[in-house]
Amino acid sequence: MSNNVFPKDFLWGGAIAANQAEGAHLEGGKGLTTVDMIPYGENRMATKLGLLESVSLDESEYYPSHQAIDFYHRYKEDIALLAQMGFKVFRTSIAWSRIFPKGDELEPNQEGIRFYRDLFLECKKYGIEPLVTLCHFDVPMHLVKEYGSWRSREMISFFERYAKTCFTEFDGLVKHWLTFNEINILLHSPFSGAGILFKEGENKEQVKYQAAHHELVASALVTRIAHDINPQNQVGCMLAGGNFYPYSCKPEDVLTAMQKDRENLFFIDVQSRGYYPSYAQKVFDDKNVIIDITDEDRKILKNTVDFISFSYYASRCASADMNDNNTSEANVVKSIKNPHLEASDWGWVIDPVGLRITMNTLYDRYQKPLFLVENGLGAVDTIDENGEINDDYRINYLKEHIKAMKDAISDGVPLMGYTPWGSIDLVAASTGEMSKRYGFIYVDRDNLGNGSLDRMPKKSFYWYKKVIATNGEDLE
């Protein structure tokens, strides 16, 4: 008798993003996006944070997204490898600027539509369900330069046209959609999160929260449109997840952790409930923010998501005494080092129990099905003398997190599926490195773009194949 808690129709798979995998950054009519402007190296973080008043390509810089792992030309080979593992679902994103190169055109780019239709048909050939993110950190640069990106209300109608095109053109091929990837990252990394560039002297908090409001209205609007076009469509929000623990039981630390969790969950509160939470006004008052919100906006926000998708890499620690000197630079979401946990080579703490806590928190708060759409270990992989990659550290990380998923399901949390990041090595969003590898499949590529781009399964490839085949029962 099996004691397995995973449902029979559980969606096992993996995840990538267009801007970290496709390459071909100007091929097929595609326009430049925000990610195409983010270099590898010392200027990367300043660019991501929106601290440069304008952004343009510099011939002396290397831009990892321009070729990435060339998924654009190699997707058939890559999908075949994912099918070998037994994938039931494949999370990817559509590059907005492949469909609308500038972002404000009236008619879409047919070559871009053809590429994604062919990609989704390739998935269908193997019985793999696409899970598609509409905006995964890549706003068309024309919209940044002409409108100020999401600081402008005009972005709502541009996004509406783009999303409607996708829902119509790929109807019958895609039924699981996400609107904005890790929407809360806008607060921490404004340019990479939402194409926001700051002007000297302006209230950055005002700009970020107004931009967030426009994204929230756009998300709710296209959620309604997705349901109108096909009632079978399921639309989710997407949170960069991971609870904040109080650094101590000092009440001020507990209060700070609660406030940090609220900051994280703020957008999901709106997307899941259909209105701003009661604590929002205090946040706005404290930050001198006045949101331009109309009655029509409030009506649109009532179109809530069908499920909550989230990433989980690590938990975080908060203290009332947090400052720049005691918080980790390992992630754009600042956190104090947890003395009870080990960390990855890039300083991200490894905390499987934190996944169970996060899942219970999200379900207690929203009572909507969850979908874990990113989770994984960035690590340096080496090919041994036998020509193999024995990534037992990755297997151990994933194994313990799958056990935590089982525990959360046993707690009563409904989980739709699991798409660990990234199913194939790709450009790391945080650092722009290839050496920070996540995949089950190795890609011969280094941090400066050298290498054959050849693909090779790692030990974790065969392990995960067994996990899927046994619906999560055999984790050894």
Automatic annotation (TrEMBL):
Gene Ontology terms: cellular component: cytosol
SUPFAM superfamilies attached to this UniProt entry: (Trans)glycosidases
GO BP field: carbohydrate catabolic process
The keyword Flavoprotein appears for this protein: no
Catalytic residues (UniProt): E374 (nucleophile)
Domain of life: Bacteria
UniProt keyword terms in alphabetical order: Glycosidase, Hydrolase
InterPro entries the record matches: GH (IPR017853), GH_1_N_CS (IPR033132), Glyco_hydro_1 (IPR001360), Glyco_hydro_1_AS (IPR018120)
The keyword Hydrolase appears for this protein: yes
UniProt GO molecular function: beta-glucosidase activity
UniProt family annotation: Belongs to the glycosyl hydrolase 1 family.
Protein name, UniProt field: 6-phospho-beta-glucosidase
Biological source species: Aliivibrio sifiae
